[in-house]
Amino acid sequence: MDDGVGTQFQEWSANPSLASEKTSAVGQPYMSPYAAGVGLGLVLLLTFFVMGRGLGASGAINSFVAVGINSIAPGHVEQNEFFSAFVGDFGRPPLAKWIVFELAGVILGGYLSAGRVRKRIDRGPRVSATSRMGYAFVGGTTMGVGMVLARGCTSGQGLTGGAMLNVGSWGFLLERAGLGNGRKLAAQFYLTDLAVFKVMFTAILTAMVGLFVLSRVGLLDLSRIYMTPTYLVPQIVGGLVFGVGFVTGGYCPGTSCVAASSGRIDAGVLLVGMMFGVLLVGESYEWIRGFHEMTSMGRATLDEVLHV
User: Is 273 strand, coil or helix?
Assistant: First the structure.
């Protein structure tokens, strides 16, 4: 019998071997988290250099929700301040954005890395498939709310903003490295498998050093790279809400795409939940706008704020 939201992960914390799977969906050993982090950091650095902006996932999900609603009720979207920002007249189709194509590439990369699609549900032995689907949806909905408040997710705020020393990102703080595995992701919160932290911070450090070097030799103007504006309080609160959704659902926006592409059904349900969370925030934006826009600091970085 399921006894609470954390039950699905309790046996993973009690038995680290469950939470610390060493092989991918095709039975191959996972890549070293440090090697994966360096690789991810180099990818992030390349996007800074080529596109003038970093990685992300939540913006694409917001766009999908806005475009979907617009196809059903265009008049409603025009009057909605939140959704209209994603489907406005940009001189191009609303989904013709870098972040949408980037997320499509993440999904393709996850599929190719997994080697094959094998339908399955990531869950503990004492958790039913139905309960796991419920946790995934609730977690996804919670994350959808959190990522809107925080103006980003683990990719956009954690990786991209972290590498740029974005204040809001540090306040907020894909299959081959195990980042498409719900058990490995949840294990971070139980301190039984820190592979995800190792990957993330190695990637941030790699990209940060690369940005510094490229800037010093005159190959990259950091002032021209897009940085999410800092709204400190809502981003910290959004990070807390996002974290609750993360541990409940077992994935973040980017990793859920990777996991779903390799056949994890619970990851697909979580994606649906995230879209529902975005819908809830969008429809209630008139009431939360004041909070969402409070403590604005503009383009703020840690070195500027701390005067170092």
Answer: helix
CA distance 243 to 237: 10
Residue with the larger pLDDT of the pair 161 and 143 = 143
The whole-angstrom separation of Cα 179 and Cα 256 is 9
Question: Is a pLDDT exceeding 50 seen at residue 3?
Answer: no
Mean pLDDT of 91-115: 82
pLDDT at 134 over 70: yes
Q: What is the pLDDT of residues 283-301, one digit of tens each?
A: 999 999 999 999 998 888 8
Give the SS3 label for residue 146.
helix
Q: Hey, what amino acid is at 209? A: V
Greatest mean pLDDT among 46-55, 62-71, 189-198, 292-301 lies in 62-71
Within 8 A by CB and 6+ apart from 27, the residues are none
Euclidean distance between CA atoms 3 and 81, whole angstroms: 41
Neighbours of 300 (CB within 10 A): 18
Q: Which uninterrupted H or E stretch holds 296?
A: strand 296-298
Question: What 3-state DSSP class applies to 298?
Answer: strand
Q: Where are the alpha helices (DSSP H) in the chain?
A: 7-14, 16-19, 33-51, 58-72, 74-78, 81-87, 98-114, 129-150, 162-163, 167-172, 182-190, 195-216, 232-249, 253-261, 265-283, 285-292, 302-306
Model-wide pTM > 0.90: no
